[in-house]
Fold this protein.
Amino acid sequence: MTTPNVTSSRLNDVMKVCVKLHKDIGLLEGKLNARNQTVRELTSRVEKLQTDKDGKEKELYQQVKQLEEKMTTHNHTIQSLVFKIQRLKRKKITRIPRALS
């Protein structure tokens, strides 16, 4: 088996390409690391926003529950007052003297 005749200039050209590829790989790795860092930061921000959103939803849910309880209390109060008014009207009607009716 014979080996091809490799000249030093050809070997030099190959080495230059290898050095260039190594630099390009280094630059691409740097860009990839920077993008990965950006992704980590964005993921962290999204998680924080999700946590804040969940907390806000819980807070709003509690406020709605409190308002519902107040409405229920007010509705019971109104219903009680309506019954009292109806009772007073019935008593008033039964108290009208027969001479006026």
